[in-house]
Amino acid sequence: MLFLAPSRVQLQTLKRTGVVVMATRGVADLAITLSGKPVISSGPGGRSSRTGRVATVFGANGFLGRYLVSKLAREGTVVMVPFREEMKKRFLKVTGDLGVVNFIEFDLRNMESVEESIKNSDIVYNLIGRNYQTKLFNFYDVNVESTRRIAETCVKYNVDRFVQVSSHDASPDSPSEFLRTKFEAEQVARSIFPGTTIVRPSPMVGGEDKLVRKIISFPNIVVNSGAQRIRPVHVMDVAKALHKIGFDDSTVGQTYELFGQKEYSLDYIRRMCEYEARVAYSQLNVPKAPYAWITERLNKIIWWPVGCADEVERMTIDQKVDKSAATFADLGMVPDKLEDYLGQYVRPWTGNLFQDVAPDSIQERKREREFIHVAR
pTM for this one? Predict the structure, then answer.
């Protein structure tokens, strides 16, 4: 005999009537998904519990994907992780309890492997993306064709939710091919799976980001003197929003723009990094045309990422926000400010003089250097 614990609504009713409900081990809650499938969650919540849901995360070993997998797995959602390279996905195993994070080798050109990744899932997240083109995959293949195949498979296996992660500034008339194909992918997803939820995150900052790491690296090459304006957002906020969207059926068919509270120029962010790390980060300003030409040639010769012409083009596009789209506020969230978390990501590169100095005494230490000299 299956015992079903009271639902949240029932619990609230019981509390109002003065009935005390004691939490017990192994409680279960029954929910019905959009497709009519029953989902039974068990446990008091947390890593060793089970939500009864199965989620597939394409692009799980990427920057955003690893945080989303952690959010899902830590509460007991079974996560299917399609992967291509063995050594780049192993760290995800420990983000969940035994049997929670499962790996499936796949290839976008092999529909059988795509179907194997999706057929048992309730929620599918598509985070596949690449900032540059390769010999095997161009922007259309990565952004549009992959979305088409994943969406068709979701329809075939009656998946409840499909969340398509796009990009800020995705537009059909963008000068960037990457942004044009991202927009086309949104249209393809909606035409195949009408209930697709579109998410457009801003440039993200985090432990493995490409925004801050480019600024603190040498040489930091920019165009237009770093005048590009963006609204950076913390990767943890985006991962939390994706997690909420996947479990909230009111987000079906919605488009979300997830951006930070303030707008900054790239040069201003560089100066913020300098202040936090107490180190001067120089930047090399180069003309757009020769920089694009050089990176495009190098991208076809060198196997590691060196950028491409389209990436240089994106460095000249100021971020614009779609005011008709939903935001963090519609999810009941307030994103963190860049000033609140930037310091923790540049702290490892703090200048040697200031490694053990409290922030309040840094200016005093600088003044002491003017008249105190230590000789060995």
Answer: 0.85
